[in-house]
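Morning, I've got a small favour to ask if you have a moment. Here's the protein in full, and shout if anything looks odd to you:
***
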Amino acid sequence: MNKKKFLAMLLTAAMALSVLAGCGSKETTTPAAPAESGEAEGAPYKIALIQQHQTNAFQIAVTEAAEAKAAELGVELTILSADQDAATQITQIEQCVSEGFNAILFEPVDPDGLRDAAKAAADAGVVVINIVSSCTDWEDAGISAVSCGNNVKAGENEMQHVADLLGGKGNVAILTGPAASSDALDRLEGYENILANYPDMVQVVSPADCQWDTAKAQATVESWLSAYDLDAIVCENDGMAVGAGNAAGADSGIVITGLDGTPDGYEAIKDGRIVGTVAQDGGAMAANGLEAAVTLLDGGSLESNVLITDSVWIDASNVADYE
């Protein structure tokens, strides 16, 4: 074999090896360096929403509105339920901090017991916002804003309508949410403010803590009806009002009212199990809280760090407007 033919063969072999090597290679990319905030450049904010529970129509409305607002704002939203357990909620907050969430929205199961967890999250640089109800001395706990209704005024609204319907006199019973819940305490305060103006409206039995639960309310009212002559049963949420209405039956003659303005409550108004409800827009509370969180994460400021949604009385005359 002459030298030229040998060199040509070597060149051909080298070119073939080069082509094979190119076909077998894989392209790799280097992740963008994280920004100073700890979030990768262009990545969406990670926001957690930790609800007290997800067992009634009001809380479902909170969930659905939060999901819709997160999609609109382009943020990554994780929704958790504490199942009405403060220890669980504390663990969830701590986990969200350790996982690098930018903001945490939560409805405190225990307004006193959640303060330390909220403050630790805020001290770690997380934007913390209460929705629906607030921690005790929430600003001192580093919480940036509260998005809620005015539960005292909502309670006053409900009890005033009960007083009007009873003509200012009658035997009254009250179903409450958990004793540790600030929204339950505030609604009861509103009831008491109105009852103070009507000495002939008498609480014939102590308020019963039914934990916002329909079945517990129904069982409680079934026992009451065999022991007391009741003119009104005033309930701190629609779920308990539905339970009371189930126990009393449709068109019972007892003024049964709720609070929150949920689909279950509206249905009970239409079929006569309850007389009315005071609507509080839990969905708006969640949506407004998310907007506030994103504003703060973007470096903006809030006109007010207390975001209040209005309440309205709903009965058979206007329920069709709110369904």
